[in-house]
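PT: before anyone asks, these are the final sequences, not the draft ones from last week. 388 residues across everything. Please model them as a single complex and drop the result in this thread when it's through.
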Amino acid sequence: MKEHIHKDVVIIGAGMAGLTAALYCGRMNLDTLVLENGLIGGQIANAVAIENYPGFVSVNGGDLVATVQQQAENFGAVIDEFDEIEKVTLKTTPKIIETQEKIYEADVVIIASGMNRRKLPLPEEKKFAGRGVHYCELCDGHAYDGKIIAVMGGGNAAVDAANFLTKYAKKLYLIHRSEFRADEVSQRRLRANDKVTIMLQTEIKALRGDKKLAAVEVFDKKTGETKTLAIDGIFVNIGVEPNTKLFKDELNLTANGRIPAGEDCKTEIAGVFAAGDVREKQIRQLTTAASDGTTAALLAEKYLAKLKEAK
Amino acid sequence: MVKVYTIQSCPYCAKVKRYLKYKDVEFEELDIEKDPAAREACQKLTGMDWAVPVTTIDNETFVIDYDKEELDKLLCL
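LR: through. Structure below.
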């Protein structure tokens, strides 16, 4: 029999939006629980250097996360990073979050479940995962000291990963199927490195190797030419998809799987807020995630005050 | 004794270590970046040049990454 526990606020996800919401909720003396079954910090936990977060010239993602986590916990928010959510029921009062170990009854739910990284969509991915195909440059980059590395992707995460991996690589290919989406500063830094060859409008068609990855077959969309590049390892950074599977029976989602909610972060269900990258919006940055977390927490507190008045 | 092969900068290694502590599992941490013998043992165990975090209890069966379900099975948690 699972234990039933009441919480003022349950925050789903401990990325920047979730942690900021936790910090604010904790500071307003709300009984706050954060549930996260991935990495605390979400996508930025892997970031080597963040240079566009106000207040820091450059900060390591893990260090920034640890600080915000500390702030949230100092104000009494509890973060559980091991229990996993099995089911959510949001239309009831209170809302029910059932985990592997407990059943939480929450007056407010803030969904800040963020995004998951996309896997390399090639049949050989499974064969070479960990044997040349990697997703975490901080974890696996060192294995390619003095070797030839490819990075797949053209956004900020890919270019930042490539910039980081140049410290190991004797040669590095940045391969992307269209044009850069990364910011100019990161692009410039990469272009200035002699070890780097940038291959835009280029698709990876196949991975080659016996037990270990040894080469990739690439197709140049501009010339129509296919060629084989000898590489030792590839780091995949081809974007993310919203982590909303848990909510698909409770909330209407947009065509791309995000949660529709305005700048007030309110969803179609009273007392349920969506914050951060999981919310449908134009700009998804660390700063806007923190902004969403703030908004959701402050409006959650107002909602809770009305709920108490009505009782 | 449970062994966990790690490197310092890997956030998933940190998560596995926190999980084992949360579950009161005693373990030995082996940093494959600093310890060549540990790297060799990890390579022999997994058949991979480089993999972290790797958790093993018997130097035969192992779990790569933070995979709670698999860790629970491996360590009978």
